[in-house]
Amino acid sequence: MFVTLVALFALGYLAIALEHPIKIDKSASALLLGMAMWVVYALGAASILPSVNPDGLANFVAEHGLDGEPIHHQCLQYILNIDIVEHLGDITQTLFFLIGAMTIVELIDVHEGFSVLTDHITTRKKRALLVVICMVTFILSAVLDNLTTTIVMLMLLRKLVADKEERWIFAGMIVIAANTGGAWSPIGDVTTIMLWVKGNVTTEALISYVLLPSLAALFVPLAIVLPRLKGDLPPIEHTQQRNSETTLGERKLILGLGVAGLLFVPIFKSFTHLPPFVGILLSLGVLWVFTEVFYNRKKLEKSKEHRLAKVISRIDMSTILFFFGILMAVAVLQSTGILAAAANWLDQAVHNVYVINSILGVMSSIVDNVPLVAAAMGMYPVEPVTATGYAANFMVDGVFWEFLSYCAGVGGSILIIGSAAGVIAMGIEKIPFGWLP
């Protein structure tokens, strides 16, 4: 049964990695994978649980008076009442946080709040423009997320750079800047969100350890690309037409409130110690009330209003289902002891957190970094603050978790298919996989 689960996970992973060649959305593959693995786990529970978690099963059976029941029934009840409930509790925290963050970002975007930033980029010097775009992307992706930031900057790029080949060079650097910018912020990338929500890293340590390496990962390719760009871009007429009914002042207000709501979450968690999803939903609630009052006072036609109830329908639910499917699949690997066995093998064969994370970073250029980070989190429990020696690397803010955040984020830039930012750049700009600048 263990071999079946590993083979099923590998097959699902392959389908996710080959999303474009096989023309099946990775969200569909991930959701099918996650649910299928729980079915297999439930069917083979009698042969898995007694060997993986005998003490937990025995305690559960004794507490619920299931001693006289068949072993399969005992194991199935344990899965239904313990395993699924515990994993769903962890997973839904991450999903609710993502839903809240994505809704706030969408609210800013639909009111054209991001134009407040992008309209100020007017230079026509190629090198200066590339530096400005990269730095804006780096900062934005730390506050928003690398996918949304990439879309915003690519839309801006189309207004600034007419030549397709040159635009592709800019687009490639946008992908790198978005990935490096998201690696050092607890809310900048899904992988850092996962590590932060579960308590593997804290905001202060993540920024202090990963910010400078992330800047280095941006500046090195930037220094390589800059000499290839010479001269100025031809002037482009800016004939922007605003579809929104908001004024410049209102766009600034909504941008400020949205960004403040996102930045409020780490502060909220530090003071209250409540899960981050509580903070993001609190911010979302405040913005929801604000938009209701805002549109009640403006008295616009219903079709021209962008109330939050309407905006929330615009978020990418397929992305949410992708994360749900992947995290549920990894949960099965964790419950069945497969991840623990993999961790033991790595400890014995490699026993070096830098090498292990470097391998994961290279792998994230080929496959999605979300399941990689989820698998690593399942393989290694957070050690207590009293841990010493090799185990100290896995304490809260330990070297392993900080370096994992860096490698998973930056490693996705090695290949254009290695990150959501790269994939969206391929789609918007029609960049072929084998393109070289």
Helix proportion range: over 70%
Question: Taking all residues together, what is the mean pLDDT?
Answer: 85
Described by the principal axes of the CA atoms, the overall outline is globular
Low-pLDDT ranges = none
Total strand count, please? 0
Q: What is the end-to-end distance?
A: 47 Å
Largest sheet: none
Write the layout of secondary structure elements.
Blueprint: H1 2-17, H2 19-22, H3 26-43, H4 45-52, H5 54-63, H6 71-110, H7 115-118, H8 126-143, H9 146-160, H10 164-183, H11 190-197, H12 203-225, H13 248-272, H14 276-298, H15 308-311, H16 317-335, H17 338-349, H18 353-363, H19 369-379, H20 399-411, H21 420-429
Helix pairs in contact: 1-3, 3-16, 4-6, 6-11, 6-13, 6-14, 6-16, 8-9, 8-10, 9-10, 9-21, 10-12, 10-20, 10-21, 11-19, 12-20, 13-14, 16-19, 17-19, 18-20, 19-20
Question: Can you describe this structure in just a few lines?
Answer:
By secondary structure, this protein is mostly helical. 71% of the residues lie in helices and 0% in strands.
Structure description:
It is a single chain. This protein is an all-alpha fold. It has 21 helices and no strands. It has helices at residues 2-17, 19-22, 26-43, 45-52, 54-63, 71-110, 115-118, 126-143, 146-160, 164-183, 190-197, 203-225, 248-272, 276-298, 308-311, 317-335, 338-349, 353-363, 369-379, 399-411, 420-429. Helix 8 (126-143) runs antiparallel to helix 9 (146-160) and helix 9 runs parallel beside helix 21 (420-429). The radius of gyration is 23 Å and the shape is globular.
